[in-house]
Amino acid sequence: MNKNFIFILFGISLIIYSSVQIASSNTIFYYTTTEAYENVDVSESERLKLGGFVVSDSVAKTNNAETRFTVTDGNKIVTIIFDGFIPDLFQEEMGVILDGYFQNEIFYSDDMLVKHDNEYISEDGQTYNVEN
Hints:
Helices cover 23% and strands 37% of the residues.
């Protein structure tokens, strides 16, 4: 009975350990622009998520139909080349989270989430604060 209990306990521990390892290896970390330069080799790295605010007057289309802009966390500015669907809420000074990779200190992204507040303004100008 004691050997069976130890075997079962070992098996459960192994399953829990394996689950944690798999979950952590599939996680793409979210970095601010400053954290990315402090913690990531920005010359060339694996995919990660980068968050910041779109800098005013930085958004431009390239010849390849890509969108080029810069984001900042208030400290470090990063140039972004985005090749993907641009959400309707995308605008200057809006918070974004980009999924991509660094190459030669430029962040190449093909997926974007736009962060927004809980305030909704209807077509007639009425403001609503939407909360969960």
